[in-house]
Amino acid sequence: MTQPTPNRLYTALRLASVGVPVLPLRAGKAPFGNCRACAQNTCGGRPNMKSAGPCRCPGVCHAWAAATTDPAVLASPAWTAAWRRAVSVAYHPGAAGLTVVDLDNAAAIAWARTALPATRTVETTRGEHWIYRGAMASHNAVRPGVDIKSTMAYARYLGPGTGTMTALPDAVRALAVKEPAAVRPAPHAVATPAGVGGGQCPHRTPAYLDRGIAMAEQCITAARSAVHATVYRTFLAVLSTHGRCGCLTDTHVTRLFTAAQAKGESPRHCTDAWANARTRLGL
Predict the structure, then answer these.
(1) Which one, of 273, 281, 60, lies nearest residue 173 by Cα?
(2) What is the pLDDT of residues 128-137, one digit of tens each?
(3) pLDDT band at 205 (very low <50, low <70, confident <90, very high)
(4) In degrees to the nearest 10, what's the CA dihedral of 256, 259, 260, 266?
(5) How many C-beta neighbours within 10 Å does residue 280 have?
(6) What is the pLDDT of residues 214-223, one digit of tens each?
(7) Spatial distance between the Cα atoms of 283 and 277, rounded to a whole number of angstroms
(8) Contact at 8 Å (CB) between 57 and 116?
(9) I want to staple 24 with a disulfide (CB 3.0 to 4.6 A). Which of 86, 174, 211, 214 is the partner?
(10) What is the dihedral of CA 243, 244, 247, 250, to 10 degrees?
(11) pLDDT in the model for residue 202
């Protein structure tokens, strides 16, 4: 499914015009390597590939994070040279508010047809991409032959596909939640068990806890895309620090839920994200 050379930049510009960040892929469905200035992320543009947005480099660097909707960048000399060598166009689903369920074989497709709601479908070399509206964290091998590509990932653009795109269902989100060895209720009471040696839990320090909640609220409020994924990751971070010692009260949880709902999250999504984070941590 290699795209003809003259069409790659045209395809990229068309996708970018509707808000889909794109990047070129070289042979092997791989992104272009970083330039010398950005090798091993020495430029500081995206440390450990965990942050997005352009660095000062004009090249096609940092894999998925290179994806852009800026037509001036896409048609710049450095990018034009990359398009000449590219074999296909890729896009960053999460930044476009999308999630791609990558079904790699016939067995995976058969499973999806019974387990997932119908949505837009794009044929791939070996299987299908099922594309949903809504972003989440990306995960590989959530089940045999099934990957989830959304934030911090790229997917090949293989055409518009068929069918009507539907909202990202809880069934897909649930695929990313690993079953813990044991699940126990999360503590919500203000009272905190004594630590080793009978000391008071250090997380009960009001300034420490309040600062953590305030930073979590700020992280959610600052999200410009992938709000679902940001809310989940923030809930996960808060619970990993404060979820086992009894520091969190209903007031703290309400503050986090309020920040998430101000960004458009429904109460149900907040509840599900909180429950999934607790399950992930075995709380």
Answers:
(1) 273
(2) 999 999 998 8
(3) low
(4) 100
(5) 18
(6) 888 888 888 7
(7) 9
(8) no
(9) 86
(10) 50
(11) 55
For residues 98 and 168, give the distance between their C-alpha atoms in angstroms, rounded to a whole number.
8
Q: Which residues pair with 68 in a beta bridge?
A: 22
**Residue 156: what are its φ and ψ, rounded to 5°?**
-70, 140
d(CA 64, CA 59): 13
Q: Residue 244: how many CA atoms within 13 Å on its side-chain side?
A: 10
Query: Which residue is listed with tokens 């091993």?
Result: 40
Between vectors from CA 118 to CA 115 and to CA 124, what angle results, nearest 5°? 95
Dihedral over alpha carbons 224, 225, 228, 234 (to 10 degrees): -50
Q: How far apart are CA 247 and CA 216, in angstroms?
A: 15
Residue with tokens 């806890």: 209
- Tokens for 81, please give them: 């040279």
Q: Are strands 120-123 and 88-91 parallel, antiparallel or unpaired?
A: unpaired
CA-to-CA distance for 204 and 192, rounded, in angstroms? Answer: 8
Q: What are the tokens at 124?
A: 């791939």
In the block, tokens 């469905």 appear at 29
- This model's pTM is above 0.85: no
**DSSP secondary structure string for all residues of 203-258:** GG-HHHHHHHHHHHHHHHHT--S-HHHHHHHHHHHHHHHHTTTT---HHHHHHHHH
Beta-sheet strands, E only, within the chain: 22-26, 30-31, 88-91, 98-103, 120-123, 128-133, 139-143, 146-149, 155-156, 166-167
Cα–Cα distance between 42 and 100 in angstroms, integer? 31
